[in-house]
Amino acid sequence: MKVEQSKLNEYLKKIHGSVCPLCGNNHWNISDQVFQAVEFDYKGILIGGASFPMVPLTCDNCGNTYFINALKSGLIDPPDPENPSVTKSENEK
Ligand SMILES: [Zn+2]
After folding, report:
1. Are 74 and 55 in contact (CB under 8 A)?
2. Which residues have a beta carbon within 5 Å of ligand 1, which is an ion?
3. CA 51–ligand 1 middle distance (angstroms)
4. pTM for the predicted model, two decimal places
5. What pLDDT, on the 0 to 100 scale, is given for residue 89?
6. Triad 86, 6, 61: Cα angle to 5°
7. d(CA 32, CA 52)
8. Mind listing the pLDDT tens digit of every residue in the chain (93 residues)?
9. Looking at the DSSP assignment, which residues form a beta bridge with residue 58?
């Protein structure tokens, strides 16, 4: 899944001036792709387990990477409660 460029730009403005705790640089790159962390299980990947949508934010200088919660940050829309496999805006198209 991709994030709209306008939402990425808005987010980067919000964190403007934040310095990397590892190297002191303040130039960040944010991915336009959403990744997900899935719930760990000793037996392997859990189908239908909990997951967490995230967008990597990487320091331009040293590569230090944060994983930003794509829902909490507003980078992606929340799912439509009546049809959780799509967002509300996708459902209205
Ligand atoms: Zn850094």
Report:
1. no
2. 20, 22-23, 25, 59, 61-62, 64
3. 27
4. 0.79
5. 60
6. 110
7. 16
8. 999 999 999 998 888 778 999 999 999 999 999 999 988 889 888 788 888 999 999 999 999 999 999 999 999 998 887 876 666 565 555
9. 29, 65
52, 37 Cβ separation under 8 angstroms: yes
For residue 7, how many other CB atoms are within 10 A of its CB? 18
Residues with Cβ within 8 Å of 32's Cβ and at least 6 positions away in sequence, in order, are 2, 3, 5, 8
**H helix count then E strand count, the chain:** 2, 6
Distance 52 CA to ligand 1 centre (A): 24
The CA 58 to ligand 1 mean position distance, Å, reads 8
Q: How far is the CA of 87 from the centre of ligand 1 (A)?
A: 34
Within 10 angstroms of residue 66's Cβ, the number of other Cβ atoms is: 15
- Residue 29 Cα, ligand 1 centroid: separation in angstroms? 11
